[in-house]
Amino acid sequence: MNETFASALLNSLWHGTLLTFAVWLVLRRQTRCSAATRLAIWQLTLAVVLLLPALRQLPLDRWFDVAIPAAPAPARPQAQAAPNVEFEAALPTPDRPLVELPSEEPADVLMVFAILLALFQLFRLAVAYLTLRRWKRKSQPTSLTPPIALDRPVTIRLSSRITMPMAVGYRRPAILLPEAIANQLTPDQLHQVLLHESAHLERGDDWATLGERLVRAVFAFHPAVYWIGRQLDREREMACDDWVVAHSGATKPYAEALARVAELSLIDRAPMLAAGAGRRKEIFVRLEALLDSARNRIPSASHPLVLGAGLLLLFAVSQSTPYSRLFGFSSYHTRHLMTDDQTRREFKLRGDIDFTPDDRDVAHMAPGAKLVIVAGDRWLPRQVEIEAGPNGELTRLYFSGGIRQPYDSEAERFLGRELSSWLRNEPINLSDRLSRWLAAGGPEGALREIRTVGNDHTKRLYLEELLLKVSPNEEILRRTLRVAGEINSDSEKRTFLGNTAPRFRGQHLPVLAFVDTLNSDHDRGHMLTELAPELPAAALPRFAASVARINSDHERAEVLLAVLGPSSDSQAPLLAVVSALHSDHDKARVLQHAVELFVDTAPVRESFFAAVNSITSDQERREVLQALLRRPTLSPESRAGIAAAAKRINSDHDRQLVLNELTAPPSTPAASPETR
Description:
By secondary structure, the protein is α+β, with helices and mostly antiparallel strands. Helices cover 55% and strands 9% of the residues.
C-alpha cells in the first residue's frame, strides 16, 4: 500500500475539503445553474470525496509507473567518460503526503475515535428511522389522494406528533401532514404542499436521503462530507420547488403556501430521515429563491453541465498526489523518500545520468534528464535541481527555504554531501565504489564503509561483491559475517548466506552467531537444520546453544527432531536443550524420537533423564519411560535411571505401570492393566 489507511484517511480530509470548497466557489458564481443541476454536481462531489482514501490505497506505483525514456546521449570526449547508469523504474515511493503519522499509535487512536463517532451517528440514524415508523404507524388515514399520479402507491395521513409536512418512505411511502397545519391551510395551499411532498417521492428522494444519511453517519468526522450533506438537503428542496412550479405553472400560489407553512410551524427542527421537512429559516431562503425571476428554474439536471463537472472533478483528482500516476502524468521514474524525526530527504530522477567517480556531482545527463535533491527540515528545506537541455547542456538551480539562491560553493557542498550519501545506499556503480573503498582502506576500510549503508538490499550486495573481489582471511570472514548480521531483513540475510555459503566453509562458530541474529524463529530453525550435517563434534555445543535461543517450542522441537542422530556426541548437547522446552508435548515428542536412536552412554543418559524429569505431565513422562523400556538392551545404569524417574511420577497408577514393566522378567514382560 502507498500509505497506511489512517494516513490516507487524514490526507483525504484536507484533499476533500479543498475540493469541496472549490466546487462551492464555482457553483456560487454560476447563478444560471438550476437547483437540480447543482444537486447532481454535489452528489458527484460527494462520491469523489468518499473515493479519495481508497484511491490513496491503490498500488498505483506498480500499475501505472511511467518511465520517461531519455534521448540518446550525444558523443562526448573520452576524458569525460564515466560509467553510464540507467535508473530503472524500481518501486518508487509516492509524493510526500501533507499528513505523516510518526507511528501507529496515533493512527489507532484516530481510528477508534472515528469508529466511535460513526457508531454514535448510526445509532441516531436508527432511532430516527424507528421514530418515523412509529409516527407513520400512529398517524390517521385521510381520504386525500396525491395531486399527481405516482409510480408507487402513496397514502396521505394526519399526525399530531409532527410540526411540518413530510414525505416518509420507503416500501410503503406516505405523506404525513401535521393536524395543526392541515386544518388551517386553504384547499389551494394544501394542494401546493401535497404537490411538493409528492415531488420528493416521485424523484426517489426518500431513498436518496437514506443513502446520504448513512454516508454522513459513517464519515461523521469528515468536514467536507458534512458540508456537502447540508448543500444536498438545500438543493433537493429547491429542486422540488422548481418541480412544483413547473407542474403548476404559477409561482405565487406556491410561495404563499410555503410562507403559510413557515408561519404555522412551531419548532425549527426537522427529522433526520424525512424528505421535505425543512427548517423554518431554510423555507425563507427558498422563498427568496422562488421570487428571483432571474434564477434558472428548470426542474431537471443539465446533462452536459453535470458531465463537464464530473470531468473537471476527475481532472482535479488526477493533479493531486499520488493520483497523477493513475492518469500518466508522472514526470519522474525513480523517486526515493527518507524521513526521520527532524529531517526529510527526497531524490527524484528521470533519464540517463552519469556521476563523477567520487559520487559528489553529475558528470553528464542525457537530453531531458533531470535530478532533484531536497533535504532539510519542514521549515527550511534546501533543494538542488539539475536538468539537461535539448543539447545536453546542464542547468543548475539552488533553493533555500523555497527562495532561489546563487549556485555557489555552498550549493556544491550541499549537492556533494547529499548525493554521495544517497548513492552509497543505492546499487548504482556499486562495484566501482567498492573498488575505491578497497583501494583506500583495504577490506577493513571497505567493511567500515559498508556498515554505514542503511539499505539492507544494497548492504548485502556490497558484502557479496566484497567476497568476490578479495580473498579474505578468517578474521575478515568473521567481520563480514558480523556486518551481515547487522542487516535488519531476514530475507536479505538468508539470501546472503545462501549466495556465499562456500566462502564460509569451516567458519562454523561465526556462521552460527550470524544465524542467531535472525528475527524469525522459522527462518532460524530452517537455517540451523541445513547447517547441522556439516558441523563437527566440537561445534555441537554451540549449535545446541543456537537451538536453545529459538523462542518457539514448536520450531525448536522441529529442529531437534531433524538433527538428532545416532551419535552420542550429537545426542548429549541436543538432549540438554529439551529440558528448556516449555511444552510437555514437545518434550515427549522429541524424547520418544531420541529413544529410537538412544546411545547408552553416560553423557546421553544424563541429558536424557534430566529432560524426562523436567516433564510435568505424569502421562507424558510415563509414555517416554515405557518407550525406553521397550528397547532390546538397556544398561543397568539406564534401568536405574528409569526407576529414579518413575519414583518422581505423582500418579500412583502411572508410576506402578512403569515399575511393573521395569521389574518384569525380560522373557515375559508385564502386561499393562489396559491390555488385561
